[in-house]
Design a protein that fits this description.
By secondary structure, the chain is an alpha/beta fold. It is built from 18 helices and 14 strands.
């Protein structure tokens, strides 16, 4: 690659970085800070425009200041940048800034073979922080390429607490017991349920931003990367899934509905959507791997605002969006999530697994004002608690709080906004 152009890009990016606002300090920093003492490469992955570059900026400014190099590969002038150009990049860093021991590389997956440079420099004692918009950065394959010397982190859209900070509202626990403050929190929560937490959209409130993210995922992250020929089928599949969040869906049904060639095509497309952090399929909990494989999946989206902008069905599906919000919060907390069917075919929205055991069961209900709904939700949860040998279950609602004891099981009913602030 042309050396003068590369030098120009380095200096332009440095100047742009200095002008970039740090924004809301992300909760993820606390996790990343733990890895400073380790020699491992820190890999931060997440959907496009979720704030990975801003997070890197926050880490750099807070802890490294003038002790690091930064380079962003999401620049159209770098289309010809190849793995062999990394040496030239490092030489220019030395020329411009002197010797430093820490690299921050943004969207590095755009360069094929980047792992070789990181592995070689890591062996010489350099520390790396890298970001990317593809789940392959978190895969076992990457562990092999970096000889196991990496730590993986996933960045999600704003949590509700980060959303409150963006709104200049500093939450404290006492606020939940003060009527006026609780009213503010609930008003912000209603906005969060509808609009989600994608940082750039939270600032400008223009749906075009979310639609651009969606289009970039489809065309740049999937169609171009995997050489997809059936673009129309991919679009129809993603739109269908975004419009039917949390509903049970079989790959065979999708194949027939969308007239796709095979179940494998459906599975591949959903894998691509998951690798780009847009959609997440959730399997049934079963000790039978075959049952997990053949049972219908439930699909969730990375962000309520994004799903709302694309599917246009929020008003009819508030309960589904509440469930989607719970799923993303569970992922943000690092939980291993499944859904559950009892022996008499009652459904529980989420069970959380740790190792070989189930540690929690959670239902989500918009409200329990209907006696039929209340009976159905509690009955399913109690039955699941019996089968899974759990003493305690949780039902998350919009605004109801209560403790229920039934058939020797304890069930906590809690407002979702309160749970998200725990």
């Amino acid at each position: 690659m042309d050396k003068l152009l590369l030098k120009e890009i380095i200096l332009e990016q440095k100047q742009a970085l200095e002008k970039l606002e740090e924004g809301v300090i992300r909760e993820k920093i606390a996790e990343i800070k733990k890895y400073f003492v380790l020699p491992h490469t820190v890999v931060i992955a997440g959907i496009r425009r979720v704030g990975k570059s801003t997070l890197l900026l926050q880490v750099m400014h807070t802890f490294f200041k003038e002790q690091c190099y930064y380079f962003n590969f999401e620049d159209e002038r770098l289309l010809n940048f190849e793995s062999t150009d990394f040496n030239q990049l490092y030489e220019l860093f030395l020329e411009l800034f002197g010797k430093r021991k820490v690299f921050f590389l943004d969207e590095v997956q755009n360069v094929k073979g980047w792992e070789g440079f990181v592995r070689r420099m890591h062996g010489k004692g350099f520390k790396f922080f890298i970001t990317g918009s593809n789940a392959s950065l978190l895969s076992k394959e990457l562990g092999t390429k970096l000889t196991g010397r990496h730590i993986s982190c996933e960045l999600y859209p704003f949590s509700f607490q980060e959303f409150l900070l963006f709104k200049n509202y500093r939450f404290n626990k006492n606020a939940l017991y003060q009527t006026a403050e609780r009213g503010k929190i609930k008003r912000f929560f209603n906005e969060y349920v509808r609009e989600g937490g994608m940082p750039e959209y939270t600032i400008y409130r223009r749906k075009e931003i979310l639609k651009d993210v969606y289009e970039d995922i489809l065309y740049r992250d999937i169609v171009a990367r995997y050489d997809i020929k059936e673009v129309k089928a991919l679009r129809e599949l993603s739109l269908y899934l975004l419009s039917n969040l949390s509903e049970l869906t079989s790959y065979n049904k999708l194949k027939n509905f969308l007239k796709l060639g095979s179940v494998n095509t459906v599975k591949s497309y959903i894998d691509y959507l998951e690798n780009s952090f847009l959609l997440f399929p959730v399997t049934i909990f079963s000790y039978s791997l075959k049952q997990q494989f053949i049972a219908p999946k439930k699909i969730y989206c990375i962000d309520n605002g994004l799903a709302n902008a694309i599917s246009f069905r929020f008003s009819k599906n508030r309960g589904k969006f509440l469930e989607n919000l719970v799923f993303i919060e569970l992922k943000r907390r690092g939980e291993e999530v499944y859904y559950y069917k009892t022996e008499n075919n009652l459904e529980v929205d989420f069970v959380l697994r740790k190792g070989t055991r189930i540690k929690a069961a959670i239902q989500v209900a918009q409200n329990l004002s209907s006696p039929e709904t209340r009976k159905r939700e509690i009955k399913a949860l109690v039955q699941a608690l019996k089968e899974l040998k759990l003493a305690h279950g949780l039902i998350l609602t919009e605004d109801h709080e209560e403790e229920v004891k039934q058939e020797g099981k304890k069930i906590s009913i809690m407002p979702l906004y309160k749970w998200m602030l725990k």
